């Protein structure tokens, strides 16, 4: 019995490989699309942080002090002064034209007033329409303002005969020293690509799994396929998904190599926890894919479901906007996405290097997705045997 | 001169055929539930869903744990004030680092604020003191909430301490040494730095393009599947001219998407009170070339779809890339030149850039003129390409017909 099952699985897998070979779309979904994405995202964020973002300096002072300030601002890695003007109106228009994301305003007589102790006020404006650009520029312009104050403070303080320590304690008694655990560079590539790329993989697995089963219904080959598995859905399904499991696992491991090997992203707990998480993500996504076509056995409905669910994952997984900040319904719903659990494993294992103990429930969740095909088995089999494709 | 060659006749017939094709395509759309999903359900439901996901805009009450080895009035006051900020909630005060780290491991908290033993002593002695802040980096928004709240409290408390420490100096005089150059920061446009206000407008515009590509691609694929010659254009005397086919079909899509656009850019932002400072007329004028560009772009692509499921397999994943290439989250200046060029092939790139600037930053057409022109150029180029594709398909069909007549 067991031997015969293995033989059937082997025969179905061989048949599947032939089917894959005949349709270039499989090749596209399994290899081309993931390659495009990995090349795109890793090359887009290769510097880790966007550099030289344009700002405008409105210099009402026009003294050597203000020019010096502008030059120092330009020297920051993330900031580039592309426009120096005396008209705030012009700067604001440049912002609306998308030419600058921030405006640094130096008031009239800034240099003279600062030294004379008349407390001239620096103002900076960021465009919240571009959240990432705005928050990075905010950081640079704020640092610049603090430094400007410090340098003036130092000058006057030293003139009064205070020591530098005394002056610093006076200028800023409490300093917050931030430690970004696991990603001290605040590298956006680390932050985004660790979840974006597996998300693409999950999407493509959903689509390909639905495609491989749905096309059997569409081209009325489902009965033949089931017969090869001696009418056992389990055997037939295992044989069918096996070639995809192999290909996608290889692709997933290559993603792992690109992220943790080639790009040396943080991998605190070593390779094993992440590689096993990637493998589990692949088979969990396949299980969800089978569930999708089982629930909606119409080929295009199944594919639509896979598309929408797969795209939604990128938002609901919570790597950009945290799940804890969402509505409780959505917090519960996020558990239905394999990528969510993969993301939590990544945070524990690769980013923070926590003990396995803290993430075992997430591994268990991923394994738990394998139950889904069994829940929908009966309906799927009925669909395979009796469903007629209506275009 | 034969009747068929008179210009007036050709024009009249052309217009009649255009309307025939329009009606025919409208029927195709409403008969096909797969297309209906993409033309109506997705544009209807997706914006709602995304607005719902990001509706809270900012993170409130990010969980923080405090390790207080100073155990002094000042450290407790600092903790109390951090807890009082809207963005951060202090869930526990521990005595040692081990316990706090364990709380991070258990995801009970996402940040640690650590007061060293000498915290209060330093401050009383007039020495600068350092307070380490440790942040879990699983979400940058948590990091931002912790950092901004802790910094704000440290500055406020610092100012009060200085006043307290040098009571002899007059108020004004003392402020000058401690705060020689004050500063203020202003966020103009999306002033609360909300996440929905930042991302949802871009998604709204992208949804329009992607659903058109998927829906029209599906119609094209179906037409080819149904057709015995795998041809995009059915065998019918009404389908003899390229222009009438392209105009007739695009008329269908435009009428449907006028409704979709009203929902997506006028109703949804109101429902979720997303910022909308743009002039409605400007938005309308800007969306016009965007719709044309998207429709002809989708019709061009549909020429390559050989079956009805193909568009989903080929185009869904591009949404993620297109969102990044548009320069809304990743600044366009930081996009490598190669990808910038690739971005110009898609109407969504200038579409999103222009729309968010009009909608969220209140730009006028003058300020988005580059994007506006790009969209018209794209509309023109894709119109020509769509015509070429249909011309080719009509010729191919005619060849077969002629061939059949001879046989």
From TrEMBL, chain A:
Q: Which InterPro entries match?
A: ABC-2_transporter_component, ABC2_TM
> Sorted alphabetically, which keywords does the UniProt record give?
Cell membrane, Membrane, Transmembrane, Transmembrane helix
Q: Does the keyword Membrane apply?
A: yes
Q: Which GO terms describe its cellular component?
A: plasma membrane
In what way does this protein cross or attach to the membrane? Multi-pass membrane protein
Keyword Membrane among record annotations: yes
The protein in question is named ABC transporter permease
What is the originating organism of this protein?
Parabacteroides acidifaciens
TrEMBL record, chain B:
Q: Which GO terms describe its molecular function?
A: ABC-type transporter activity
Question: Keywords, A to Z?
Answer: Cell membrane, Membrane, Transmembrane, Transmembrane helix
The places in or outside the cell where this protein is found are: Cell membrane
Cellular component annotations (GO), alphabetically ordered = plasma membrane
Record keyword Transmembrane helix present: yes
UniProt xrefs under InterPro entries: ABC-2_transporter_component, ABC2_TM
One Pfam family this sequence matches: ABC2_membrane_3
Q: Where is the ABC-2 type transporter transmembrane domain?
A: 35-387
Regions crossing the membrane: 35-54, 195-219, 251-272, 284-305, 312-330, 375-392
Q: Origin, by domain of life?
A: Bacteria
Q: Does the keyword Ubl conjugation apply?
A: no
Membrane topology of the entry: Multi-pass membrane protein
UniProt protein name: ABC transporter permease
Upper taxonomic lineage:
Bacteria, Pseudomonadati, Bacteroidota, Bacteroidia, Bacteroidales
């Amino acid at each position: 019995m067991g031997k015969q099952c293995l033989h059937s699985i082997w025969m179905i897998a061989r048949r599947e490989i032939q089917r894959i070979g005949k349709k270039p779309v499989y090749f596209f979904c399994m290899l081309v699309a993931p390659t495009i994405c990995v090349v795109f995202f890793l090359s887009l964020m290769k510097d880790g942080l966007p550099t030289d973002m344009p700002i405008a300096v409105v210099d009402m002072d026009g003294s050597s002090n203000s020019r010096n300030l502008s030059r120092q601002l330009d020297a920051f890695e993330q900031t580039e002064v592309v426009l120096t003007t005396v008209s705030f109106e012009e700067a604001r228009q440049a912002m609306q034209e998308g030419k600058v994301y921030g405006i640094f305003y130096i008031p009239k007589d800034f240099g003279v007033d600062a030294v004379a102790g008349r407390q001239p006020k620096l103002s900076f404006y960021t465009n919240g329409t571009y959240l990432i650009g705005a928050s990075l520029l905010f950081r640079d312009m704020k640092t610049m303002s603090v430094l400007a104050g410090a340098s003036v403070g130092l000058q006057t303080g030293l003139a009064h005969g205070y020591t530098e320590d005394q002056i610093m304690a006076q200028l800023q008694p409490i300093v917050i020293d931030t430690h970004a655990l696991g990603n001290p560079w605040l590298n956006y590539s680390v932050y985004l690509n660790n979840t974006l790329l597996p998300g693409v993989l999950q999407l493509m697995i959903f689509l390909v799994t639905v495609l491989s089963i749905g096309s059997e219904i569409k081209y009325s080959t489902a009965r033949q396929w089931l017969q090869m598995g001696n009418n056992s859905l389990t055997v037939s399904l295992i044989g069918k998904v096996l070639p995809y499991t192999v290909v996608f696992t290889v692709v997933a491991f290559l993603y792992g190599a690109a992220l943790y090997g080639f790009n040396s992203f943080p991998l605190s707990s070593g390779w094993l926890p992440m590689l096993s998480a990637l493998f589990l993500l692949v088979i969990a996504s396949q299980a969800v894919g089978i569930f999708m076509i089982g629930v909606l056995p119409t080929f295009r409905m199944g594919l639509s479901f896979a598309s929408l669910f797969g795209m939604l994952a990128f938002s609901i997984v919570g790597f950009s906007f945290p799940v804890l900040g969402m509505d409780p319904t959505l917090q519960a719903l996020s558990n239905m996405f394999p990528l969510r659990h993969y993301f939590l494993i990544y945070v524990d294992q690769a980013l923070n290097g926590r003990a396995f103990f803290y993430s075992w429930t997430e591994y268990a969740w991923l394994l738990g997705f394998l139950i889904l095909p069994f829940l929908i088995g009966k309906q799927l089999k009925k669909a395979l045997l009796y469903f007629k494709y209506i275009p | 001169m034969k009747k068929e060659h008179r210009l007036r006749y050709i024009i009249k017939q052309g217009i009649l055929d255009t309307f025939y094709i329009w009606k025919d395509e409208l029927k195709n759309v409403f008969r096909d539930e797969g297309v209906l999903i993409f033309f109506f359900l997705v544009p209807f439901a997706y914006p709602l869903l995304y607005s719902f996901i990001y509706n809270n805009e900012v993170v409130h009450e990010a969980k923080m744990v405090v390790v207080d080895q100073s155990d002094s009035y000042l450290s407790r006051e600092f903790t109390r004030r951090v807890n009082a900020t809207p963005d951060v909630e202090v869930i526990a005060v521990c005595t040692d680092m081990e316990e706090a780290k364990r709380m991070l491991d258990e995801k009970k908290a996402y940040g640690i604020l650590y007061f060293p033993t000498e915290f209060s002593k330093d401050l009383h002695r007039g020495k600068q003191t350092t307070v380490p802040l440790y942040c879990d980096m699983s979400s940058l928004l948590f990091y931002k909430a912790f950092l901004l709240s802790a910094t704000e409290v440290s500055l406020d408390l610092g100012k009060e301490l200085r006043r307290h420490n040098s009571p002899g100096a007059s108020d004004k005089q003392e402020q000058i040494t401690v705060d020689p150059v004050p500063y203020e920061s202003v966020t103009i446009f999306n002033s609360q730095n909300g996440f929905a206000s930042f991302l949802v407008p871009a998604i709204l515009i992208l949804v329009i393009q992607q659903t058109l590509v998927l829906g029209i691609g599906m119609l094209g694929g179906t037409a080819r599947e149904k057709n015995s010659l795998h041809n995009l254009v059915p065998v019918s005397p009404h389908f003899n001219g390229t222009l009438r086919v392209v105009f007739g079909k695009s008329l269908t899509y435009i009428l449907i998407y006028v409704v979709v656009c009203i929902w997506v850019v006028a109703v949804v932002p109101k429902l979720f009170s997303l910022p909308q400072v743009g002039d409605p007329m400007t938005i309308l004028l800007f969306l016009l070339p965007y719709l044309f560009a998207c429709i002809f772009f989708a019709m061009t692509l549909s020429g390559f779809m050989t079956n009805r499921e193909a568009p989903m397999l080929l185009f869904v994943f591009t949404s993620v890339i297109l969102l990044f290439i548009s320069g809304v989250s990743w600044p366009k200046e930081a996009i490598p030149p190669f990808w910038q060029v690739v971005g110009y092939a898609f109407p969504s790139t200038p579409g999103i850039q222009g729309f968010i600037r009009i909608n969220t930053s209140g730009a006028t057409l003058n300020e988005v003129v580059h994007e506006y022109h790009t969209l018209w150029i794209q509309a023109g180029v894709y119109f020509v390409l769509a015509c070429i594709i249909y011309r080719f398909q009509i010729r191919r069909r005619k060849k077969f017909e002629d061939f059949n007549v001879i046989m």
